[in-house]
Every structure is written in structure tokens, then in C-alpha cells.
Amino acid sequence: MYYKSLSIYKYLALFAIILAAGCKAYKPIEPQTNSPMPASFNANADTLTAAALPVNTFFKDAFLLKLIDTALKANLDLRAALQRVEMAGANVKYNKSLLLPSVEFNATAGLERYGDYTMNGVGNYDTNLSPNVNGDKRIPNPTPDYFIGFRSSWEIDLWGKLRSQKNAALARFLASRSAYRLLTTELTAQIATAYYELLALEVEQNIINKNIKLQENALEIVKVQKLGGRATELAVQQFAAQLSHTKSLKYSTAQQITETENQLRLLTGTFDAPIARDTSLLTLNMPEKLGTGIPSQMLLNRPDIKQAELELAALNADIKSARAAFFPSLTLSPYVGYNSFRAALLFDPGSAVYGLIGGLTAPLLNRGRIKADYAYKIAQGKEALYNYQKTVLAGYQEVMNNLKGMENYSQYFTHKQQQVTALKNAVDVANDLYVVGRATYLEVITAQRDVLDAELELANTKKNIFITDVNLYRALGGGWR
What we know:
The chain has about 475 residues and is α+β, with helices and mostly antiparallel strands. The protein contains 11 helices and 4 strands.
């Protein structure tokens, strides 16, 4: 009796050691930045953020809004992202169902021949000799085994392992929704960027065509002057070369227009639909100044930051689930139905059976695998934290870059306008002086080339202002509502 009690204590001690090994305290990894965030983006920051503006309020161009609306309905990447949300939602339902018992209808049939020198063989032979067993109750050899009824299995979530798996799935579902919003934001920004690039290319095309006409007139003038002995063949060839260069720009720009149109068709999910647009980029009003809000608002509005935070929450739940794997698990397996070794008597009331099996299992030899999985999940959690910190840092820098971009591009555009005006006057003066012999043909060519370059750069700067405005809106977390 003493030795039996001692043996029981040994098993209890071993069981306590197993439990203690899994009870190591776990501190969740909190979503925090690696250094304190600034209180504002700049000294004059507005507390109201433009991220709250809907797309149809932020954008004023009806053509652009139509493109965005088409893309939100037909873009293939967006549709694929929506399916990822559906998959994540189904995964939540699956993990939630693990907390409930499973019930299955079960119908089985088997046949076993027992040997004479087996426990079943000796036991069944002795049973059949009993005077209490006769007729249909005698056990045949081979012995059929028929069962029809319901079987259930239910793992009792003692330590929260299944609950943590459900929480991880829920966090990933919410993260997939944030990923969908992020893609919506990126798609909106891509369409707006391509649209303004297309407007700028249209302006460039008009500027090039205008300059081609001016240079054709200049070439005709120098040809006439050559006939009159006032110009040389060298001057004619120089003017012709400049005209050919400008004409080549026309076809280069035409190719860029084609590629940009097709980019917009790809984003909107169409093959050859016409891309309607406004062609007055240079006369469009400058974008209104956006309210940036404060950096902490960016954490709430940017879908990529929210997605990174939810991924971290999912991994925290994974770590809890991996930690719970150290503890014993309790599984209940009830069943009810009919069981018989004679098919004709399967549904006889005497064949009715029911039972309940409870099993308690604890990891022992496979603890190394559980420890490795636990360490792996912790490393994943730390990686998710660093990704979160990187996303927050990148978001802040994007806002700052685009804030300064709006300021600098606006100043650049003002001075470039003054330059274009001065260069246009210079072309007129150069042409007049050339006619009266006070300027050389090289001065005329240089003046024409300078004004062409300046006008193209002016159009590009206006485009950059609108694109930077779009990027600032996106960086603040707008564009997905």
C-alpha cells in the first residue's frame, strides 16, 4: 500500500512539473513607436485632418471622379482583396466553431476473426458456453460489428488555446479589411496621379505643336533670307535641326499619352474605353491647403498602420495559443446509437448504446517541438512590432515630405511662370533683332529652345503640385472612406 501511494505521488509530481513548465508569464507585445511621436507635423498644424474628407469632396474634377468610381467597381486587384476579406471571415467562423462540440452521424460495419489463443477468442468461447447465452446472443466467429448513431468530440478550452486561435483569426480578418482600405487608398492615388500625368502630357503636346508652328515659320524666314544673301546654309540647317528635334518630342509625348491612357484602363478594368479628361491643367485652380491634423490622428486614419497593429494583435493571440499548448488538454467524446454483431438485431431496443469517453493528454516527449513553435511565434511577434514601428515612421515622413513638397513646388511654379513670361518676350525680341540684323540665328534658336523647355517644365511643375496634394491626402490616411 505504501509503495502504491508513493507511485501515485510520483505521477502527481510529474504532472505538476508539466504544468509549471507551461506557466511562464507572458507579456503581450504592445503596439508602440520606438521613440515618442512629435506633437504636430509643423508649428502651424491644423487640428482638423483632411483625411476625413470623402473622395468626392476632396477631388473637384468630374472626369477624375468618374474614373475612380469605375475603378472601385471593376479593378481586379480590389476584387481580389475583397475575396481575401471573405477568406479571412470564413477563417473566423472556422476557428469559432472549434470552441463548440462537433457532432457527426456515424454508420460503420466491420468484421473480425479472433484466434483461439487470444483474449477475445478465449473470452468469447467461454461466454458462448454459458447457460445464460443462447440463440442470437451467441457470438459468431468471425464477428461482425455494426454501429449506427451519433458521435461527438469536444475539446474543453481549459487554457484559452482555442479562444486565442479565434482571436487571432478575428484580428487577421480586421487586418484584411484594413488591407482592402489600403488598396482602395492606393488605387485612388494611382488613378489621380496617372490622370494628372495625362493632363500634363496633353499640355506638353499642345506646347510642342505650338512651338513646331513657330519654328516652321522661323525656318521659312531664314530660307528667304538665304535667298537674299542675308543668311547662310548653316543657319538653315540649324533651324531645320531644331524643328526636327521638336517634332520628335511630339511622337515621344504621344507614346507617353498612349501608355498613361492604358495604365488608367488597367486600373479601371477596361480594354479600350476612352479616357475623358480636362485639358486645361495650367488654368486649373491650385489645390486648397489641407489640414494635416496631429500625428496621433494618422495612427487612426492610415489603413496600413491599422493593418500592422492588427497583425501584431493576431500574433499576440498566436503566442497565447502556442503557450497554452504546454498545458494538458481535455477532450470529451460522447456517443449514442445502436450497436450489434447481428444486422437483423441492430435496431432492436436491446442494441441501444450510449457512452462518454473523457481523455486528458499532456505533452511530454514532443515538448521540444512546442517550445520551438512558441519561440517562433514570439520572434514573429517582435518582427510585427518592428514592422508596425517602421510603418508609423514611414507614414510620418511621407506627410512631412508632401507638406514641404506643396510649399516648395508652389514657390517653384511661381518663379517658373515668371521665367516663361521673360523667355517668351526674349523670343519676340530675338526674332525682331534677327530680322534687322542685330542678333544671330543662334540667339534665336537658343531663345526658342529655352522657352520650349521652360513651358514643358512649367506644365510638369503644375502636375507635381496636384500629385503632391494627392499624396499628402493619402499619407494622412484619406481616400478609403
